[in-house]
Specification:
- The protein has 319 residues and is mostly helical.
- Helices cover 70% and strands 3% of the residues.
- A hairpin with a 2-residue loop joins β1 (69-72) and β2 (75-78).
Length: 319
């Protein structure tokens, strides 16, 4: 029996396709693909840099130029150091700095310690921690103006919540925002309540990253709650504590919204006039943009110098 033979048409039919692996792309195609990828990446990067330059760097450069200029009758001339001299010789300048430093000190006492204590307490809860985190962070999600107006209602000397609480304990009512002794403290309490949620969650995340073995070892050594916090919790969260300390000092030195809405900016006898509010007065009440820019430049130098010293001390402590 003879073997079957293929027809000539099938025997001579060419084969298409490749059974083996595909060949690598040519150098030209690879170059074009890399070029398209780099153009897309650099396009997004250039857009971000342009936005940052327009909204951040340009105002800084413009402020630096305005600090040495004077505008009169629509004509701008160079003023040299006269704007800075005018600002420094203004009695409100030193009062504003005293009030700003007082606010920063009180805000550190309340706004730096209270979130850490709240985070330590929340870290001890095993149930309902998500609900408690939401409850603590809720004031941050509220619009700042709404939060400040809420506290302004609380501070009302006639029907405010705080004076009602004092009445329950048979204590005399207070003129919270109208008294020079309590105006700044009232602003600090409102600012602390508004901004403590973010710091609390950051502290809580840092606390949950501490190994439990350290606390177990401390308990075996007979350490109580306060000793565990001092010898375990604080050393393990020192980086977060130092970073938030620096950020909070910078933020509190630029306080504006709370005193502006609670006490109309200046407060009784200027007791809540801050540096940023004085800048606002120079620019929008007195139309003296040169002095406003000069005072802003002074604030920039002070904060930059403080940050540089703080970073230097942190490096020395790490070494």
């Amino acid at each position: 029996m003879s073997a079957p033979t293929l027809s000539p048409s099938k025997a001579t039919r060419p084969r298409h396709g490749h059974a083996g692996p595909t060949r690598p792309n040519s150098a030209r195609e690879e170059f074009l693909r890399t070029l398209r990828r780099n153009i897309s990446a650099h396009g997004f990067l250039i857009g971000a840099v342009l936005c940052f330059s327009f909204f951040s760097w340009y105002p800084m450069v413009r402020e630096f130029i305005l600090a040495f200029q004077k505008t009169e009758n629509g004509k701008t001339t160079w003023a040299g150091w006269s704007n800075l001299s005018y600002v420094v010789n203004d009695p409100a300048f030193w009062q504003a700095w005293r009030n700003t430093l007082l606010f920063s000190a009180l805000a550190l006492v309340f706004g730096f310690a209270i979130p850490f204590v709240v985070a330590v307490v929340l870290n001890e809860f095993r149930h309902g921690q998500g609900y408690l985190r939401l409850l603590v962070y809720l004031p941050v999600m509220l619009p700042p103006v709404a939060s400040v107006l809420l506290f302004k209602y609380f501070y009302d000397p006639g029907y405010g919540l705080f004076n009602r609480i004092l009445e329950i304990f048979h204590l005399p009512p207070q003129q919270w925002l109208q008294d020079t002794d309590t105006a700044m403290l009232s602003v600090v309490i409102a600012a602390t309540w508004m901004n403590m949620g973010g710091a609390t969650l950051i502290y809580l995340a840092a606390l949950q990253g501490i190994p439990g073995e350290l606390y177990e070892a401390a308990e075996l050594d007979g350490a109580g709650l306060l000793r565990k916090i001092w010898h375990v919790t604080i050393p393990q969260t020192r980086l977060i504590l130092s970073l938030l300390l620096l950020m909070q000092i910078i933020a509190t030195m630029q306080v504006f919204t709370e005193p502006f809405l609670l006490t109309n900016g200046a407060g009784p006898e200027g007791s809540t006039t801050t540096v940023v509010y004085l800048i606002y007065q120079y620019a929008f009440n007195f139309n003296n943009y040169g002095s406003a820019a000069a005072l802003g430049l002074v604030l920039l130098v002070v904060l930059a110098g403080f940050s540089a010293v703080y970073v230097r001390l942190s490096r020395n402590s790490e070494d």
